From TrEMBL:
Residues 40-104 form the SAF domain. This is Pilus assembly protein. SMART domains: SAF (SM00858). It comes from the Bacteria.
Length: 247
């Protein structure tokens, strides 16, 4: 009886030792196999990251994982610090490796053909026929001169006194559209503005007083825009009447 019991204990011990040795062998084999694949630590998305999310907000949404080198592309991100200031170009989903190609400068996600409004200025939009806006050849970031004309009543108490003046210089264009409220690329802008009856919507950045004058001209007069550059003369121009044009 004792002999059988002792034999059973020995068999149990041997089974346990065998299991431990087998487990150790398997782990060692896995480690050797993994080492043979040149594993690298990369960042893998753990939860949804919406487009436009700053890289600084990725910390809780990605996790470092060790993957075989053959399963990792050259553009896979391994360190968030290398991409400071970037944002997600598209929505990122759990399980995908974080790719450098999906991290971009925030400015690249800005609306097309649009620039920021300088601090302290307001935006005002004008809908003009192409001939009044250089044939539609304007884009956000350009500066323009604003010509204002009135057919009559230029001087209070008078009636038939048509006049024109180059009222503003170097006015920033913040947005250009084709009249449907949407921004347009240069190619589309040119194509749309060349159509019969087409018009161009131009948004300008101006101070409160200047914007008020522009709106007054929109309501009661006429406006032409000229495209200006760094060398354009910005000296003040007197109001011009018909008798002066025909001198």
């Amino acid at each position: 009886m004792k002999t059988r019991l002792l034999g059973g204990v020995v068999a149990l011990v041997l089974a346990i030792v065998g299991a431990v040795l087998l487990s150790s062998y398997v782990k060692a084999s896995d480690a050797r196999a993994q080492a043979g694949l040149n594993p690298v630590d990369v960042l893998v998305v753990q939860e949804n990251i919406p487009s436009g999310t700053p890289i600084e907000d990725f910390k809780t949404s990605v996790k470092a994982q060790s993957l075989p080198r053959t399963a990792v592309s050259d553009t896979t991100v391994t360190n968030l610090k290398d991409y400071a200031g970037k944002v997600a170009a598209v929505d990122l989903v759990p399980g995908e490796q974080l790719q450098a190609s999906r991290l971009v400068d925030p400015k690249s996600l800005a609306a097309p053909n649009r620039v920021d409004v300088p601090k302290g200025l307001a935006e005002v939009s004008l809908t003009l026929a192409p001939e009044r806006v250089i044939g539609g050849d304007l884009k956000a970031g350009d500066t323009v001169g604003v010509f204002i004309s009135y057919n009559a009543g230029v001087v209070p108490g008078t009636t038939e006194v048509p006049a024109t003046k180059l009222q503003f210089h170097k006015v920033l264009v913040t947005k250009v559209g084709t009249g449907d409220g949407n921004s347009a690329s240069d190619a589309n802008q040119s194509s749309e503005s060349s159509k019969p009856g087409a018009f161009v919507m131009v948004t300008l950045a101006q101070s409160g007083m200047d914007a008020t004058k522009t709106v007054h001209a929109i309501e009661f007069g006429h406006i032409y825009l000229s495209k200006e550059n760094a060398d354009t003369d910005t000296l003040s121009v007197d109001t011009l009447h018909k008798d002066q044009v025909l001198k």
